[in-house]
């Protein structure tokens, strides 16, 4: 944990509920004492359901917190099909009772960027909300301290397909990339260097009601994929903001294809004057430890002393 004295003001923009890694990223944020979570904005598909899932996980965490969960854009900028796993919310009872905030997610992002020059936005999902916020307020990129993104692929990833968040709304990724916002990107070639398996899951599942709920979500995702492991894409990206000392970064000029055979395909070229930085390496064992440690803290509460 860094020796920062002032809290990091964070808005977390997420497609929580499909891949379990967004839920793990939210728990990681909740277990990070240096973070003041101003709100959660959901995106992509049934965003009311996604906001309710976030609200439930926050309610299960140790400690009392009132963090607004705001349903955001359901569609993509050009109406591309939404990928929906079908299991979203199904490990949680009575989700319709979870409170969500009746406010525009785009307006929420713009309002907080206006209030604070120290707003850090984290996006682990298609970039639709962020692109719409920039379209509505072209000055927004100059008023946020940083935008941390899990998205894109900037090196060999194995299957050669474009990354899901960029491919789901490439037009949104393009708007964000071109906006000049201080962007830190973690691509698939970085996140796929880590996996979570049974030993990590056993530790997380034992961490209070939140840990148990995450355990059910992980189990669901593993069964969906027919695997006994998952890649913690989104938690890795969150840690690039919280523990940058565990990563290396390079300023790079970015491009994303919005047309052609594989929209969402991304490229990065070294450019010392670029406003974007791309993660180029990480300390895999310390990142893996930090993910589990912080999620456990979210479930069990801070060590006091
Ligand atoms: O490609 C990985 C990304 O797609 C992650 O954000 C995961 O949660 C899914 O949204
Ligand atoms: Ca995600």
List the helices and strands and how they pair.
Layout (H helix, E strand, L loop, with lengths): L7 E7 L6 H10 L4 E8 L4 H14 L8 E3 L33 H11 L3 E5 L4 H9 L9 E5 L13 H5 L1 H9 L4 E4 L1 H4 L6 H8 L2 H18 L7 H10 L4 E10 L9 E5 L5 E7 L1 H17 L5
Parallel strand pairs: 1-2, 1-4, 2-3, 4-5, 5-6, 6-9
Antiparallel strand pairs: 7-8, 7-9
The chain binds alpha-D-ribofuranose and calcium ion.
In helices, the fraction of residues equals 25-40%
Q: Please provide the count of β strands.
A: 9
Distinct helical segment count = 11
Structural classification: alpha/beta
- Unique ligands: alpha-D-ribofuranose, calcium ion
- Give the terminus-to-terminus CA distance: 16 Å
Mean pLDDT: 95
The rough form would be described as globular
Radius of gyration: 18 Å
Summarize the structure in words.
- By secondary structure, this protein is an alpha/beta fold.
- 38% of the residues lie in helices and 18% in strands.
- It contains eleven helices and nine strands.
- The chain has a nine-stranded mixed sheet, with helices on both faces.
- Strand 1, helix 1 and strand 2 form a beta-alpha-beta unit.
- The longest helix is centred in the last third of the chain and has 18 residues.
- The site of calcium ion has 7 residues, from helix 1.
């Amino acid at each position: 944990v860094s020796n920062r004295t002032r809290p990091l003001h964070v808005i977390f923009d997420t497609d929580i509920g499909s891949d379990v890694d967004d839920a793990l990223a939210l728990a990681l944020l909740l277990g990070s004492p240096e973070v003041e979570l101003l709100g959660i904005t959901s995106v992509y598909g049934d965003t009311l359901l996604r906001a309710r899932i976030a609200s439930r996980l926050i309610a299960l965490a140790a400690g009392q917190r009132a963090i607004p969960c705001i349903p955001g854009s359901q569609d993509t900028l050009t109406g591309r099909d939404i990928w929906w796993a079908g299991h979203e919310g199904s490990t949680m009872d009575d989700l319709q009772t979870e409170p969500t905030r009746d406010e525009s997610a785009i307006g929420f992002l713009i309002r907080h960027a206006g209030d604070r020059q120290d707003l850090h936005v984290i996006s682990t999902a298609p970039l639709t909300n962020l692109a719409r916020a920039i379209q509505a307020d072209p000055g927004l990129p100059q008023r946020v301290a940083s935008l941390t993104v899990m998205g894109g692929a900037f090196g060999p990833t194995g299957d050669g397909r474009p990354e899901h968040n960029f491919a789901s709304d490439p037009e949104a990724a393009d708007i964000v990339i071109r906006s000049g916002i201080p962007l830190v990107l973690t691509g698939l070639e970085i996140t796929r260097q880590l996996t979570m398996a049974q030993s990590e899951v056993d530790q997380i599942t034992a961490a209070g009601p939140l840990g148990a709920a995450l355990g059910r979500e992980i189990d669901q995702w593993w069964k969906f994929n027919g695997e006994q492991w998952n890649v913690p894409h989104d938690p890795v990206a969150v840690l690039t903001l919280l523990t940058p000392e565990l990563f290396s970064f390079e300023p790079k000029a970015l491009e994303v294809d919005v047309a052609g055979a594989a929209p969402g395909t991304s490229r990065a070229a070294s450019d010392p004057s670029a406003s974007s930085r791309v993660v180029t390496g990480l300390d895999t064992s310390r990142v893996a430890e930090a993910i589990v440690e912080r999620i456990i803290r979210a479930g069990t509460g801070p060590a006091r002393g």
